[in-house]
Write a structure and sequence with these properties.
Length: about 220
C-alpha cells in the first residue's frame, strides 16, 4: 500500500501511512519513512526551514540503522542520499567533510544491489559535483583534505549511462546530465540526442520541469 502510494508521487500521504508504525522498529518501515521524507523535502510547497527539518528527521531515523543493518541495501542507499542533503544544508564545509563518507555508503549500496538506477544516478551526481566544484570551494576543500576526492566527466557519464541501461528513461535529470557530460566532452551529436529526450520528457515533477527547461536552453545554444 505504502509503496504504491509512493510510486504515484504522494509522498506526504505515504509518510502518514508509515509513521504510525515507526515504534515497531522495523527496518523495512523505517527506511521507507526516510524515503518519503527525503522526497517531501524536495517539494517547493515547503519553505527552506521545513525542508531542512524533514531531512534532519530522516537522518535521525536512518542513522540508527546504518550500523545495525549494514547489509541492508536500502539502508545504505538512503543513508548516503540523506547524509548528502543534510551536509549540503549545513554549508559547504560540512558538505566537503562528508564527501568521502557519502561515496563510501553509496559504494556499499551498489555492492549490495548493482542495478538500482536511482543509486547509479546519484553516484554520477557525486562525480559530476566533484568535477564541477568551483575554484574557491576547492580551496576550502584543500584546507580540509590532504587531497580533494578526484573525479571526471567521464566517471560521471559512466554512472549515468549505467543508470539509463538499468532502467531506461527513468529520470529526466539523468537524461539531462548525460547530455551535459557529452557536451563537456565535446560530443555534440550524443549530447543533442539526450538533451532532446530531457527537453521533451513528460513533466510530472519539479525535477522534470527543471530538466525540460535546462535541456531546451542548452539545445538553443547548440543550434
Amino acid at each position: 500500500m505504502a509503496d504504491k502510494t509512493f510510486e504515484t508521487g504522494k509522498y506526504e500521504e505515504c509518510y502518514n501511512l508509515l509513521i504510525k508504525y515507526k515504534m515497531q522498529n522495523d527496518v523495512e518501515i523505517k527506511w521507507r519513512i526516510c524515503r518519503a521524507l527525503y522526497n517531501m523535502a524536495k517539494d517547493p510547497k515547503y519553505n527552506e526551514k521545513i525542508r531542512k527539518e524533514l531531512i534532519s528527521q530522516a537522518y535521525d531515523i536512518i542513522v540508527e540503522d546504518v550500523k545495525t543493518n549494514s547489509h541492508n541495501f536500502a539502508v545504505q542507499k538512503w543513508y548516503a542520499l540523506i547524509l548528502d542533503v543534510k551536509s549540503s544544508n549545513e554549508g559547504i564545509q560540512a558538505k566537503i567533510e562528508q564527501l568521502e563518507n557519502v561515496k563510501k555508503h553509496m559504494d556499499l549500496a551498489v555492492t549490495l544491489n548493482p542495478n538500482d538506477a536511482s543509486l547509479l544516478h546519484m553516484l554520477g551526481e557525486w562525480c559530476f559535483q566533484i568535477t564541477e566544484l568551483p575554484w574557491h570551494q576547492r580551496k576550502t576543500a584543500d584546507a580540509i583534505f590532504a587531497s580533494l576526492p578526484y573525479s571526471t566527466y567521464e566517471d560521471a557519464l559512466e554512472y549515468y549511462l549505467k543508470a539509463e541501461a538499468a532502467q531506461p528513461r527513468f529520470y529526466s535529470i539523468n537524461l539531462l546530465r548525460i547530455g551535459c557530460c557529452y557536451l563537456k566532452l565535446k560530443k555534440e551529436d550524443q549530447a543533442k540526442y539526450y538533451l532532446k529526450l530531457a527537453a521533451s520528457y513528460p513533466a510530472k515533477s519539479d525535477d522534470d520541469h527543471r530538466a525540460n527547461k535546462e535541456a531546451a536552453e542548452l539545445l538553443k545554444k547548440l543550434k
